[in-house]
């Protein structure tokens, strides 16, 4: 499904005339329907990998080959803006710790819009949005409020709901359980397991190693830059 080859990314600090290395010589492959967990200390470049796959970072070297339903085997690093917009809208989902949305858009409208983008009709989108918001225990009193009034945990659950309702072919998870309680983590785990059963490929970063247990098929360790299979 996705093959990362010798990825390299650095950031330039212009006023200091310095380059900071984010990732170097990163390579791995993820099979369709598998879950790759990425582990490593803070600052090791885990999020940089996900942002490079999603196209929000442009690495200086390497390649990211993704088996797209629309475009076939495409190198994300050389994809056009139009191709990336299509991939983000229909094929690749991204969940971060932070929620960035259009102002004056309610929580329900955000999830409903994601469902519509996935190709559902209006009636189905409303039904799926209600079920998804309920699954993540977002109180109905919040559905028609603006997310900027939500707590950190509520924003994170909304962010996850927007991503999973689309049932993407590839889902990138950047510490999606960072500020969640145990009950909410369980809801996220249930959704991930369901997506896996439906054939979604996943790449995720988790500091909670217990959460990852039994979910991941392989684990990529940043310090060693190697993939290890997880025993079932």
UniProtKB/TrEMBL annotation:
Keyword Nucleotide-binding: yes
Cross-referenced PROSITE patterns: ABC_TRANSPORTER_2
Keywords: ATP-binding, Lyase, Nucleotide-binding
Keyword Nucleotide-binding: yes
InterPro entries: AAA+_ATPase, ABC_transporter-like_ATP-bd, ABC_transpr_LolD-like, CP_lyase_PhnL, P-loop_NTPase
GO terms, molecular function: lyase activity
Annotated ranges, domain ABC transporter: 2-232
PANTHER family associated with the record: IMPORT ATP-BINDING PROTEIN
Protein name: Phosphonate C-P lyase system protein PhnL
Organism for this UniProt entry: Ureibacillus galli
């Amino acid at each position: 499904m996705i093959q990362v080859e010798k990825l390299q990314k650095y950031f330039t600090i212009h006023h200091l005339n310095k380059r900071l290395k984010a990732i170097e010589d990163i390579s791995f492959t993820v099979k369709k329907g598998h879950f790759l967990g990425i582990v490593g200390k803070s600052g090791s470049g885990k999020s940089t990998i996900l942002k490079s796959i999603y196209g929000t970072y442009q690495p200086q070297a390497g390649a990211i080959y993704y088996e797209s339903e629309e475009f076939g085997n495409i190198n994300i690093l050389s994809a056009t803006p139009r191709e990336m917009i299509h991939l983000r809208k229909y094929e690749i989902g991204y969940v971060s710790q932070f929620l960035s949305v259009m102002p004056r858009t309610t929580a329900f409208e955000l999830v409903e819009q994601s469902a519509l983008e996935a190709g559902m009709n209006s009636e189905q989108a409303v039904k799926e949005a209600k079920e998804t918001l309920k699954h993540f225990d977002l109180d109905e009193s919040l559905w028609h409020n603006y997310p900027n009034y939500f707590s950190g945990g509520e924003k994170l659950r909304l962010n996850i709901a927007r991503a999973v309702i689309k049932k993407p072919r590839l889902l990138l998870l950047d510490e999606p359980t960072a500020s969640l309680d145990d009950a909410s983590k369980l809801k996220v785990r249930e959704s991930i397991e369901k997506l896996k059963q439906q054939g979604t490929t996943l790449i995720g970063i988790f500091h909670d190693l217990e959460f990852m247990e039994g979910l991941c098929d392989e684990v990529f360790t940043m310090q060693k830059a190697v993939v290890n299979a997880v025993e079932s």
